[in-house]
């Protein structure tokens, strides 16, 4: 039911563009024949009820599916309306509300979408119940009506005339109508029946029931009902002279229902919107042929532009776009097959393709077919039809572990061109996924789990460095604002910890730049490095829609020292940006401050709840220190962050120790603990720190400890509270 609900939501959203176009055009077509609006509303109804549509380059629908059918499985859920200004408003709300927390067992949308589907069904049921109750109530009121002639009845229980009935519509009149009024009103109601309005209205109401959550549908249903009345009035008075039109207008006025007593049954037609109708009747003029022709052309344009989906619409892509050359002249089988290797543990893959042929080269007799099962380590293969080479194909697949479905997705394969050498070039993209990405390989492609993806490969745009200078006060401010200010470190191979900032929107970037104002030079370039303001020009809405920006502040005693990102690593929900220092043999002695920018795709960021950045003591370390599990963490805050210190203990007998953010020292080694005392020994054998153990935490023993406390406020008697 959730899939049906999302399908209806997408149908309603795409139809909204047509409804908006109709609403925009209405003021410019006031003099158009009202009967032609029936065709306009028929076009809108078709768009609202058809679950599919042909594609056209003339389509004005920005996106056919604003909400991805598998959005509940996206690590960073987003919608795409095809209009950047709308996406910019909606997506931050969607991402903030529905992005799953790291370690969560379920995506929030997997809960809310079924709830939305239930509410949708409840709304439909309520509207249908209202239809049933109001119809039965009205039927009881006219049960004793007197038949005047065929289809014409009078009743003393009604105050105004109306048509009621679906299969056998009848006209009901009150007793107090004059002969002239009866003639005019009967002509109007008979016109409703002749046009089939008694059926079109109920069909419109049923469409409203399905799309009740869309306010545009409610507004257009109201206008649709009003246009039916105006069209009937127009049909009745088109051959009347001015005197008869005046009598007809008076009949409408005499039969007008008080606003509070208007008929509310969707099956019936009553006298409503009298003021507009009387004006239309009294000022009626036969429409000119050119205006009728214009309206016909308008209907054709609406059909072509809004009943079709965009042909060039780009689906969301998960991972790389993979290029492949089909070589029909080569004798080797591999030149005929596009290979997709599933790298996760699984028992088999069930796949089907819309065109071309699936091919298993790893199984005996190398079976082919539109539907194929790939067992064990067999690689999913696809080949185009030939000699009429396939233009486009979709490969749907489901990955299983026994009977349990692990992953699913859709690979879109499109022909791009044919080379002079006879090769046919294709591109493949993963356009639907519930936790997989597609990576390009030298001889095909690999389907990889997002959690298995090495994040160093996800630096999506570039890594760059901008000069901003140094400032003692500014550095302290940056340390307090940093993402990793209070983070207990457990990673070894650290030479210097660096303040890290996570930026996810243009507004957050503007706030960060304001925090630098007055302390750092954001508009000053240095040697080959741009100013930070110049660098920020590339961080626009398009950038933040796909990537998260991490800024790392690095301060060095020489401006000749440069830096590069060695790796971006995700482990147990923690992301670490590992930086290596490139120091020249000779350099200047000018202090320099840098902002290192790292762009990481949003899917990788969503899998993490902590972030850190540091300069590595050596490149490509063999081990990460410490290896044990964290069992206790202690922290001293001091009067300011620049006086802080922290100790983490691990069950492997190892410890890490950090001091104030201004300190470049990162201590780690082994510890010995008794019930009353804790002693830390750094791995270089040079430093020792002693603490008295209490229930509240650790009391620093300055007399027995090394004097190097590295710019922190750590002194004898200071208490590190247990976290």
Task: Compose a concise summary of this entry.
This protein has about 725 residues and is of the alpha+beta class. The chain is about 30% helix and about 30% strand.
Strand content: 25-35%
Question: How would a crystallographer describe the biggest sheet?
Answer: 8 strands, antiparallel, barrel
Give the C-alpha Rg: 36 Å
Mean pLDDT: 79
Strand order of the largest sheet: 28-29-30-31-32-33-34-35
Ends apart, CA distance between termini: 46 Å
Low-confidence stretches: 259-264, 454-462
Structure report:
This protein has 723 residues and is an alpha+beta fold. The protein is built from 15 helices and 35 strands. Strands 28-29-30-31-32-33-34-35 form an eight-stranded antiparallel β-barrel. The chain has a six-stranded antiparallel sheet with strand order 8-17-16-15-10-13, with no helix packed on it. The chain has a six-stranded mixed sheet with strand order 12-11-14-9-19-18, with no helix packed on it. The two termini are 46 Å apart. The relative contact order is 0.08. Mean pLDDT is 79; it is low at 259-264 and 454-462.
Topology:
Elements: H1 2-25, H2 37-49, E1 55-56, H3 84-98, H4 109-141, E2 146-149, E3 152-154, E4 162-164, E5 170-173, H5 179-195, H6 197-210, H7 215-237, H8 242-254, E6 268-269, H9 274-282, H10 289-306, E7 309-310, E8 322-326, E9 338-342, E10 348-353, E11 357-359, E12 368-369, E13 371-375, E14 380-383, E15 392-401, E16 404-418, E17 424-433, E18 436-441, E19 444-449, E20 459-467, H11 472-481, E21 494-497, E22 500-503, H12 506-516, H13 532-536, H14 541-546, E23 547-556, E24 562-571, E25 574-582, E26 592-601, H15 602-606, E27 610-616, E28 630-636, E29 645-650, E30 654-658, E31 666-673, E32 677-682, E33 688-693, E34 697-701, E35 719-722
Parallel strand pairs: 1-7, 3-5, 9-19, 25-27
Antiparallel strand pairs: 2-3, 4-5, 4-6, 8-17, 9-14, 10-13, 10-15, 11-12, 11-14, 15-16, 16-17, 18-19, 20-26, 21-27, 22-23, 23-26, 24-25, 28-29, 28-35, 29-30, 30-31, 31-32, 32-33, 33-34, 34-35
């Amino acid at each position: 039911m959730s899939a049906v609900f999302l399908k209806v939501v997408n149908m309603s959203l795409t139809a909204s563009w047509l409804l908006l176009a109709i609403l925009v055009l209405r003021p410019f077509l006031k003099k158009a024949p009202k009967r032609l609006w029936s065709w306009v509303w028929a076009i809108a109804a078709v768009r609202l009820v058809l679950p599919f549509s042909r594609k056209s380059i003339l389509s004005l629908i920005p996106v056919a599916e604003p909400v991805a059918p598998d959005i509940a499985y996206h690590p960073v859920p987003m919608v795409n309306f095809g209009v950047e200004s709308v996406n910019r408003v909606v997506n931050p709300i969607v991402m903030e509300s529905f992005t799953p927390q790291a370690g969560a067992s379920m995506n929030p949308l997997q809960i809310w979408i079924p709830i939305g589907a239930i509410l949708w069904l409840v709304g439909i049921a309520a509207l249908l119940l209202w239809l049933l109750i109001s119809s039965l109530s009205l039927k009881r009121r006219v049960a004793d009506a007197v038949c005047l002639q065929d289809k014409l009845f009078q009743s003393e229980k009604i105050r105004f005339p109306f048509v009621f009935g679906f299969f056998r519509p009848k006209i009901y009149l009150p007793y107090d109508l004059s002969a002239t009024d009866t003639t005019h009103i009967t002509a109007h109601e008979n016109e409703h029946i002749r046009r089939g309005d008694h059926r079109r209205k109920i069909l419109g109401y049923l469409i409203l029931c399905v799309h009740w959550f869309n306010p545009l549908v409610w507004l257009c249903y109201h206008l649709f009902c009003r246009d039916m009345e105006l069209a009937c009035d127009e049909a009745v008075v088109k051959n009347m002279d001015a005197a008869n039109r005046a009598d007809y207008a008076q009949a409408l006025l005499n039969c007008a229902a008080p606003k509070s007593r208007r008929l509310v049954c969707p099956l019936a037609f009553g006298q409503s919107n009298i003021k507009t109708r009387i004006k239309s009747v009294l000022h009626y003029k036969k429409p000119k042929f050119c205006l009728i022709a214009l309206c016909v052309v308008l209907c054709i344009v609406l059909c072509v532009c809004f009943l079709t989906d965009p042909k060039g619409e780009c689906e969301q892509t998960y991972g790389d776009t993979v290029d492949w050359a089909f070589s029909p002249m080569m004798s080797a089988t591999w030149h005929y097959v596009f290979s997709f290797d599933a790298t996760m543990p699984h028992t088999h893959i069930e796949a089907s393709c819309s065109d071309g042929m699936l091919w298993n080269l790893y199984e005996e007799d190398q079976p082919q077919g539109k539907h194929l099962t790939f067992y064990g380590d067999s690689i999913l293969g696809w080949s185009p039809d030939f000699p009429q080479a396939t233009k486009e194909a979709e490969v749907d697949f489901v990955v299983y572990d026994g009977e349990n479905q692990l992953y699913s997705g859709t690979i879109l394969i499109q022909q791009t061109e044919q080379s002079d050498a006879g090769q046919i070039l294709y591109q493949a993209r993963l356009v639907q996924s519930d936790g997989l990405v597609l990576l390009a390989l030298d001889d095909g492609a690999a389907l990889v789990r997002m959690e298995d993806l090495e994040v160093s490969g996800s630096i999506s745009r570039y890594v760059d460095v901008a000069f901003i200078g140094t400032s003692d006060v500014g550095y302290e401010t940056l340390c307090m604002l940093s993402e990793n200010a209070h983070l207990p470190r457990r990673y070894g191979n650290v030479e210097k910890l660096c303040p890290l900032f996570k930026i996810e929107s243009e507004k957050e970037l503007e706030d960060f730049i304001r925090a630098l104002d007055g302390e750092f030079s954001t508009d000053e370039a240095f040697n080959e490095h741009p100013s930070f303001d110049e660098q920020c020009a590339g961080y626009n809405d398009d950038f933040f829609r796909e990537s998260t920006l991490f800024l790392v502040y690095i301060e060095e005693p020489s401006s000749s020292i440069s830096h590069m990102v060695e790796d971006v690593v995700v482990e147990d929900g923690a992301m670490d940006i590992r930086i290596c220092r490139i120091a020249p043999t000779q350099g200047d002695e000018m202090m320099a401050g840098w902002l290192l920018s790292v762009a990481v795709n949003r899917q990788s960021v969503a899998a993490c709840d902590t972030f850190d950045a540091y300069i590595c003591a050596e490149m490509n370390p063999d081990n990460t220190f410490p290896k044990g599990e964290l069992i206790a963490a202690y922290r001293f805050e001091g009067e300011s962050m620049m006086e802080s210190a922290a100790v983490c203990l691990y069950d492997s007998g190892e410890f890490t120790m950090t001091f104030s953010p201004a300190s470049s020292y990162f201590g780690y080694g082994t510890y010995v603990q008794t019930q009353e005392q804790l002693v830390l020994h750094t791995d270089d054998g040079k430093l020792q720190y002693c603490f008295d153990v209490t229930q509240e935490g650790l009391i620093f023993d300055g007399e027995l400890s090394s004097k190097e406390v590295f710019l922190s406020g750590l002194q004898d008697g200071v208490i590190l509270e247990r976290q």
